[in-house]
Write a structure and sequence with these properties.
Elements lengths: L11 H17 L5 H17 L11 H24 L1 H48 L1
Helix pairs in contact: 1-2
Amino acid sequence: MTDNAVAKPMTATEQFREKIFDRIRSDIGDLMPDEMLREIVKQCIHDELNKPVGGIGGGSPWIKHIIKEQISGRVRQTAIDIVSAEESKIHAAMVENLKEQMPEMMATLLLTILKGQANSLEFAVQEILNKVQRY
């Protein structure tokens, strides 16, 4: 690799591992070589993220539940913020869509009503014919 090569940005998992590595390194000092510590942290994270827990047939690893709990509120709030910021655009798009779809929706509704009325009329005529035939 040349000195001019640009370092690839770290993924979220790699950043997470680095943070854990740094925290452990600060707690235990220089007792263990960096590469060994990195490999231990990497393996522990992998094991915890993939280890099923309790219940019949196992379940999701506990850390996935914790991560989901921690980010679900942030994801929900982010979605609310985005929708709130774009509310006028969303409203305009909905109104435009309804304007475009309204004639077809009204035609479908009217046809459904007319079919129902035709069926009722057919039934009433059939009843009258049945009565006439009996007499």
